[in-house]
Amino acid sequence: MKPTQRQENSQKISKDRARQKRREVLVRRASIGMLIAASFAVGGGGWQLYRSGLLESAGQVVADNSLKLSARTGLRFEHLYVEGRVRTSKEMVLQTLNLSMGTPILSISPREVQSKLEEISTVRTASVDRILPNTLHIRLEERFPAIVWQSEGKRYVVDAEGAVMEDANAKDYPNLLIMSGEGALAHTKELLALLEQVGKSTNGQASQDNNIAMQVTTATWVGNRRWNIRLKNNVNIMLPEDNPQNAWKHLAQLQQERDVLEKPILAIDLRLEGKVFLRLLPEIVPQPPKKPSKNSVKET
Known about the structure:
- By secondary structure, the protein is α/β, with parallel strands linked by helices.
- 37% of the residues lie in helices and 22% in strands.
- The protein has 8 helices and 12 strands.
- The longest helix has 38 residues, at 5-42.
- The N and C termini lie far apart (104 Å).
């Protein structure tokens, strides 16, 4: 059976890595040989040169010349392969690397490249392989947008760990729920865990709770201690500071038994354990009967 293009690329990369290791060993041996030759050249004055710092400078010159020589023999940066790039722009990667084609590839540190890439806000982790004679192979694990954080009039995309993805545009994610309130960012994982937990029944399947969780549009962190949740129908749900999961499940039960969310209500207060308070829309609130005016005429 003929291998697929991906399998062929994978086999090629494996072979290139094996050749890379052999070439790096040869280059290291050549560099060591040049350094040894330089030390013999200075003869008995080596100690004096070492003390003066000239030997160190000479060693650097030998290293630089070795890199230039390696580039002339084909060990230079010419190809870049990046895997896993979806939300990280090509321009951002190139700008971060700041590498010129033709640079001696042995002068490029995979660890330094990795460190630079992981400074990009959309990148969670990066791995870098230097494949001789001329290729850098990069694998990115990107952060996944989970929520939009609103702060001081601005909106930021945030991942499930609460890391702000500054290089992502919140306008590109109109379906993500919006989180706000002073100190809310530090409780991102708590909020997402709440919505995920109440969205599953004991056997791991979707439950009635999930129908409510999918209607959430905004979450406001109140008083640095609890959440207010707003649904698509503009109903505001006030969760308690302690055991918000139990309060949410209570709401799910009410919805299943009485369709409480279909009622003409403005808010549902669940802050007291075991109790539910409904705030009706203004036009639904019963008005007290009007008292008759003193000047009113009673017909007989």
